[in-house]
Amino acid sequence: MTIEWGWFPDHADEMARLTADHLATAVPAVLLGLLIALPLAVLAHRVRPLRGFVLGASNILYTIPSLAFFVLLLPVTGLTRTTAIVGLTAYTLVVLVRNTVEGLDAVPAKAREASQAMGTRPLRTLLTVELPLALPVIMAGVRVATVMSISLVSVASYIGYGGLGQLFTDGFQRNYPTPVIAGVALTLLLALVADALLVTVQWLCTPWRRGTTSRQRSFKWRKAA
């Protein structure tokens, strides 16, 4: 397999455009998935009889092959970016809903009881106590959903909104490996950068965990000494 390195500078503008298109499809899908998943997860956490239904419904959506899902959406949303975003949003739900439910389940009961004892309303307890404490688990789901969406965007090249996936299609159709390798490398780079950014966001949003981690490391160092 021969790579033509001169192809990369000649197609830099095209790669930049496709990268922007890739992000314009993946990022809204994750954000929409999070907006949908949060209330569903809270509902599943608070109303236990609905938990199985909510989690099961998200799992069923995930079992539909991505290409078939896009085809099913075409009569409704047409050959538009909306089709790709709706399909990807549905796939993020299985991760985001489950992780949010698990994060809320892991919140210590004493934290809720202390908030209620101070007369805090349930909604404020959710926003100021439960969700912040569940944030590490929720962010783990967001990271997985983001990487998954970035990888699945390429499948949307079938409807013309696959971002970097168009490089795959072009390379395979012409039996030309260079654009395929470029698409794979850029998709991987996007996933790594996005994951690193989300790790940074989580670190900034959970200052209490930084202190805990530092104390744990100090304790382990003293114990080893």
UniProtKB/TrEMBL annotation:
Which superkingdom is the protein from? Answer: Bacteria
Q: Name one Pfam family in it.
A: BPD_transp_1
Domain named ABC transmembrane type-1: which ranges? Answer: 19-199
- Which Gene Ontology BP annotations are present? glycine betaine transport; transmembrane transport
> Is Transport there in the keyword field?
yes
User: InterPro entries under this entry?
Assistant: ABC_transp_perm/SBD, MetI-like, MetI-like_sf
Q: Which GO terms describe its cellular component?
A: plasma membrane
Record's keyword terms, sorted: Membrane, Transmembrane, Transmembrane helix, Transport
State the membrane topology. Multi-pass membrane protein
Q: Where in the cell is it found?
A: Cell membrane; Membrane
The UniProt similarity line reads:
Belongs to the binding-protein-dependent transport system permease family.
What name is this protein filed under? Answer: ABC transporter permease
Its source organism is Streptomyces platensis
User: What taxonomic lineage is listed for the species of origin?
Assistant: Bacteria, Bacillati, Actinomycetota, Actinomycetes, Kitasatosporales
